[in-house]
Amino acid sequence: MDGVFLQSGTPTGTANATANATANASAGGPIATLPETISGVLGLSGTLGDVVGGLLGAFLIANIMLGMTALAGPWAKRKITAAFTDRIAVNRIGPFGLLIIVADAVRLLSKELIVPEGVDRPAWDLAPIILPFSALLGFAVIPLGSGLQLADPETGIVFAFAAASIASLSLVMAGYASNNKYSLLGALRSIAQNLAYEIPLVVTAASVIIFAGTFQTSEIVAAQTETLVSLGGVSIPSWYAFVNPFAFVLFVAANLAEIGRNPFDIPEAPTEIVAGYQTEYSSVYFVLFYLGEFIHIFLGGALIAVLFLGGPAGPVLPGFVWMIIKMWAFFLFTQWARSAVPRVRIDQLIEMGWKGMLVLSFANLVLTAILVGVIA
Amino acid sequence: MSLEESTPDTVDTGVTTAEEIEALLGDLVLDRDDHLNAPGFVVRPDQVQDTLFRLRDEAGFDHLSCVTAQEYEDRYESIYHLKKYDDPTDEVSVVVPTPTDNPVSESAEPVYRTAEWHEREAYDLVGIDYDDHPDLRRILLPETWQGHPLSRDYDQDRPQVVPLREHANPLQEDHEGDEDDTMFLNIGPHHPATHGVLHLKTVLDGEQVVDVESDIGYLHRCEEQICQQGTYRYQIMPYPDRWDYISAGLLNEWAYARVAEDLADIEVPEYAQVIRTMGAELCRIAAHMLAVGTFALDVYGDFTAIFMYAVRDREKVQNILEELTGQRLMFNYFRLGGVVWDLPEPREDFFEMIRDFLDDLPEALEEYHDMISANEILQVRTVDTGVLPPEVAKSYGATGPVARGSGVDYDLRRDDPYGYYDELDWNVAVEDGCDNYSRLLVRLREVEESAKIIEQCVDLLEDWPEDERTIQSNVPRTIRPDDDTEIYRAVEGAKGELGIYVRADGTEKPARFKIRSPCFSNLQTLPEMSNGEYIPDLIASLGSLDIVLGEVDR
């Protein structure tokens, strides 16, 4: 394949240098990953080039994600919820209240880090680090468009799911190590929930993989560039959300549960079990959890975009911008659900997962397999 | 005599006369001690259960409204205020005197479940022992408190030491039995969903509630004692606002106004009654809005639009009430014999304001139904959870939306009319579901009914002739009811039957002032509703009870 579609439009902002480099690098073959581009620009080669390029690339991607999270957590979340509930929300500091991000960061980080008695120390400290780490790890294989992709292994999508699943480990560690019953309940709930929803999630993703015939994220994206139908000169690409809307809905629902957002925010369930697994965390550790949750939302959005919405593809704007728009659209969706949908009960959630979603996702998989087998 | 005995277990809709009761009780009656509201019968402390069983099963007194305990110079006394759910004007008081040196009386708990908490409170504050009581512990004060604050020999200056040993090892109670895999969980006193400082001692089996016990008293403010130190005429009147501070102010004020007016035989002008009725219903809407909003918060689990919408509508009501009373929360608008001032001028603007609100209300309610009661997930969450069968509700003395959500058709505004309610056209909202959903629906429907009442009141007030606008009757500056006059009167508050018992001793201050809080009785039903349910349902049930801890703990 060639990377022409991925580079449509003008590169802007941070992506400027790298995108140009990508355009050069990809002229004669598969698109270069970000580390390759960076080492190419710096003129480094061999192991040194891999290391420097990898580190710089990872640094760049992680910072983009953390920057988005900083915007989403203290500011956008409040603004969006306020819009849904007829309020104004933060508007005092800076334009549109944007500097609340700085104020909140200072506030949260300057709080005392309370370490409760009897916590299981290494686990308790590691949990808040693992959560954002696992989500960031998933971004390693996500094609963010405009050449921003850290790695493009053949098993890319599997790696993304695997990395995202590490989050459960973090929640369990936090819940177990906190020496708090609410935390324990939250941790147990999160295990039950992730078991019940990860299977439908992955099985639904498998139906897309059957269509695309590959695990490689860039290939999945490329497979969606073909025209599905042409309506009056406008060609609709064969995004899997259009090809198989049923799988799309299933995946979005399972993804909500996977990242623990309303109506499936059961591991936290503020009115029931206080704050679930993160009850005992304060200050920096709390910020890390908070960050981790938001990066997970964005990772969820990125996975949906890659699997169902053509990845970074889109008209006029550069691919990277489209990818960001799609991720934020999913973020908006989670906040919408948060403002409007009641939380289901834990037993109802499990029942929906095992008796409903699992069956539907397997039905979807089998049907897709038959269809693809017959047509192809 | 034989009439009553020949028809046991039937609920007689007719009023049972004092003579019939006396004949029914026969030799159980030692003496008569009539109260202004009801005939009173003195019985022996060891025959309480016999008496109450007979009254419940053969005369249909199925509602133990309140238990008042007090100490006289020569004796202790427990008073059981009985009513009928079918006709709350049909009342009887069972008076149980016990000697000062041995204040032991038989418990009424086997007859009425609600007596458990009421008697615990009597034991806690006054110091009467109840034989046969399943769990006679302090309820409002800490377990280690020394002395009983409402008894005559209580030493106020004695330092109270509350040792920390109670909190020594909170994990000790983790296991109910050696083989059970249960977990003990403290929900509260600081918890996002306890609506105040309520402490639920919960035993869990996995996610399911095996047992829950409410630990109350964190907000005990000696309300009864404070009232006993105030004069009838002026000093008590502003205080009821503070009992249930969820903007049920005028409803609470009415409870005191009603009991004091009946006690001192004060007439209230009709015009003032209409204003009172209107104000009280506005308060009910405000209170129900908050109840619905917080219930949605409990079930939805996050800060949702519903809470903001409910607060928005509540705000409109509060603006109206501010115009009327000058206050937004602690109204202090009622006076004995009427209200403090007339409607604000210009009256047209005020009526316009209310009408605007009433015009918008159907649409707002439609919105609530769209967002809450028609929401499928909410229905899955609330239908058939927190089930409270009507018989259980009655036994626990549940009233208000909690009782009406269990199909108990009981509303003092209609059944024991006061104010201007019996002149107006409105309905009592009753739902038969007995679950969390029904209680939610009852509140939403009651808002509609309140709106109807307010509209009729506005119509009346608009046409009221100018020279007949008497807002207060002539009330003596100092009120001194006769010595040893006793009265128990209740009104329909936002949460249910808010009753007050007052004993006068010939001075200008009450000798005993006892508040029957609806939340106190309603909260007692929580274990019945949530045992065997999941934690989220426990939280939802608690939300559906709509308790205010200020009123529970008094």
UniProtKB/TrEMBL annotation, chain A:
Domain of life where this protein originates: Archaea
Residue ranges the record marks as coiled coil: none
One Gene Ontology term of the molecular function aspect: NADH dehydrogenase (quinone) (non-electrogenic) activity
Compartments where found: Membrane
Pfam family, one: NADHdh
Keywords from the named record: Membrane, Oxidoreductase, Transmembrane, Transmembrane helix
Protein name: NADH-quinone oxidoreductase subunit H
Organism lineage: Archaea, Methanobacteriati, Methanobacteriota, Stenosarchaea group, Halobacteria
TrEMBL record, chain B:
UniProtKB keywords: Cell membrane, Membrane, Multifunctional enzyme, NAD, Transport
Membrane topology term: Peripheral membrane protein
Domain called NADH:ubiquinone oxidoreductase 30kDa subunit: residue spans: 42-158
Highest taxon, organism lineage: Archaea
Pfam families on file: Complex1_30kDa (PF00329), Complex1_49kDa (PF00346)
Cellular component, GO, one term: plasma membrane
Subcellular location: Cell membrane
Matching SUPFAM superfamilies: HydB/Nqo4-like (SSF56762), Nqo5-like (SSF143243)
Reactions catalysed, as given in the entry: a quinone + NADH + 5 H(+)(in) = a quinol + NAD(+) + 4 H(+)(out)
One MF term in the entry's GO annotations: catalytic activity
Keyword Zinc set for record: no
Keyword Cell membrane: yes
All residue ranges annotated as the NADH-quinone oxidoreductase subunit D domain in the record: 304-554
Oligomer and partners: NDH-1 is composed of 13 different subunits. Subunits NuoB, CD, E, F, and G constitute the peripheral sector of the complex.
The family this protein is said to belong to: In the C-terminal section; belongs to the complex I 49 kDa subunit family.
Name the UniProt record assigns to this protein: NADH-quinone oxidoreductase subunit D
